[in-house]
Write a structure and sequence with these properties.
Elements lengths: L3 E10 L2 E11 L4 E5 L6 H9 L6 E6 L2 E2 L10 E4 L11 H11 L4 H14 L15 H14 L4 E5 L7 H18 L2 E6 L2 H7 L2 E6 L2 E6 L1 H6 L4 H6 L6 E9 L2 E4 L2 E4 L7 E6 L4 E17 L3 E8 L2 E8 L9 E6 L5 E3 L8
Parallel strand pairs: 3-8, 3-9, 6-7, 7-8
Antiparallel strand pairs: 1-2, 1-4, 4-5, 9-10, 11-12, 11-14, 12-13, 14-19, 15-16, 15-18, 16-17
Helix pairs in contact: 2-3, 2-4, 3-4
Length: about 350
Amino acid sequence: MAEIVIKNVAKSFGAFTALHGIDLTISDQEFMVLLGASGCGKTTLLRIIAGLETATQGEVWIGGRRVDQLPPRDRGIAMVFQNYAVFPHLTVFENIAFGLRMKKLPNDAVTRRVERTAELMHIETLLKRYSGQLSGGQRQRVAVARALAMEPDVILMDEPLSNLDALLRLEMRAELKGVLAASKTTTVYVTHDQVEAMSLADRISVMHSGRIVQAASPVEVYRNPAARFVGSFIGNPPMNFLTATRAGTGKWSVAGQTVDGPLSDASEIDFAIRPEDLAVGAGGIAMDVRVIEPLGAHTLVTANVEGSVFRAVLDSDTAIRTGDTISLIPKPDRIRWFDRDTTKAL
């Protein structure tokens, strides 16, 4: 069992607080992604789990054992870094075998593990090469194979695909998900790339300003953001937001239209809808088209609604031109509402 329990973990660097009392439980064999913009604290949290940073307060437990006072080598973890950290003077075989040699495993056991993990990562034909003879994608496979060969309880990954080109990232994402599921290893993966997070994760922990704003499945995070920040961060393009004014009990005025909404004593709340959850139709939200971007099967329309930028993803055959005023109807079950003071979902 390799359940990770993070209890009230905080980290300060002088007067700056990078993490504010983080509580998070990651289940055994779960693929957890820490997602957020640069500076949100995700890498700091990963490094605390790894033992490369010391928490200012709190506890870290792995597999029912408190580890925050143990050195990294005793935590049952392996780590894959953004820059690969592949040794240039060693062959691929010896790179993968490095940690096993440090543990003084017998040569035959080392060979078995190296060959098995190399085959898993499809680099079995590269074992005699040096890193200078490898592409970036091949070096990344070597780094992952080296971590897997250790048969760790937990694998920690810090933006491991960020240096690869788009097509290679797509290929590696699919392989990583399959390989890590087969290895039955608990994985904590840091990224700022929401596509990576959505495609890889069993659950996503969305981080902002040193706090976890929401920890849920990719679908839940996308469809039911717990706070306005999550809706504005997840999605490309992100959610649209408009001010809703109370027009009666459970009734709200949005861009001149009356919409059924939550019960609230507030005079104003935020109305939110994803761009793909809008359709052209009479009696909807009027928007003045500013920019049209053809995207193949769909067209991204950027418009102005009451002074706010508003985007819609429409079918590519929708007849529309820059300067038009069109009416868009939101899907009622996809509308989300947020408190203006707390920014939390209503």
